[in-house]
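Pair request: fold both.
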Amino acid sequence: MGWGQVGQHRKHGQKGGRKVGRHKHLWSYVLRYEPNYFGKTGFKTPQSIRGKPNTINISQLDQLAHKLTQQKQLTKTKGRKPIVIDLTALGYQKLLATGKLTKPITVKVNSYSKNAAKKIQEAGGQILTEKQTRKKTEEKPEETDKTETETPKD
């Protein structure tokens, strides 16, 4: 065939995009220099499908509360009662802890970080999740005392 002795041009063929001999006489090369040559690498979900939660930091929350009170969308109450902000209605899914909170705020949000909850509680506010608000609306009114019940005596 014109290639002289056995073994000449042995490594130069192509098999479907793979180099020849990777599972046989070049196996030590694969192990040393290309350990990820064989095998599947997995499927990565595209960014368009994978949704990122819309987040807000505590510093932005403080500014938002100030802005909404100036626009008279939130009503200030006398005393030191916390302002109630529904972040789920505003399009936010998660509350993060960057920044400082200057006033007590009650926040309704789906998820939050531990540090954010700690900072809000230190400022005198609280966080309500969707589960907590559902429980409050579904609770039954308290029944009257049943300490003394009339039972028929035999």
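--- second member of the pair ---
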Amino acid sequence: MSESKKERGLKRLVLDVLKPHMPLLPELSVELSRLSGVAGVNISLIEVDKNTESVKITIEGNSLDYELIAKSLEESGAVIHSIDQAVAGKVIIEEVETHES
């Protein structure tokens, strides 16, 4: 991939994911961090049920491959409920809070 495509590629994904108790969060985060284009992974536990865990997964990198990430999660038994944030371009633009409710 050319440098300009990497510069403008997908930089951050925030995913709402339902996963089984295994793999444990540290194992899943390391597994995701090994994927091509991934620079860092943050997984936060939101809720625990009898058989599952609801987690928020934040992934950052220069050129993330959503399909590869989704396939890796699926192989670990997880299901993506929603894409809560997607950031692309040369830089990461943070969400700006406005005065509107």
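Observation on the second member. The chain has a mean pLDDT of 92.
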